[in-house]
């Protein structure tokens, strides 16, 4: 008996919000390293912020770390506001990937790849994706570049183990909530 599994990657950026086509939102939410400049600056944002986050994700997948990172969220936001052109790309990221990331992470949302007339098709047609079988991806018929060995459906040996966090946070003892 053979078992075929189609893996779906669910990316959790911490929060998500559905925004109508042509609409903007001003909700500040998201994983700090992935937040687009217009969110930080409270200018309102739309799906172009997703293009930005995709660029950050591609950078992190190729390099092992995000392009913008500080010791706390505020420092990360300040680094983001300097822009993608201030980021030194590792030599292992090829030119076409660098170009894709920089086009996804333009400071001006209207200039971002994926947020122009042809939408996502512009991303799909980018040189870095040349030869990629988008239809096969949609149909679930492309082979994975890596197939892990597993002993059964509950085998999690290909994942790192992290012990459960059992530390209780310390009580906040300022008394601010005594009258509730």
From TrEMBL:
Keywords: ATP-binding, Kinase, Nucleotide-binding, Serine/threonine-protein kinase, Transferase
GO molecular function terms noted in the UniProt entry: ATP binding; protein serine/threonine kinase activity
Record bears the keyword Transferase: yes
Domain Protein kinase: 1-129
Signal peptide (from-to): none
Region (Disordered): 155-180
Acidic residues: bias regions: 162-180
Annotated transmembrane regions: none
Residue ranges constituting the AGC-kinase C-terminal domain according to the UniProt record: 130-180
Record-given protein name: cGMP-dependent protein kinase
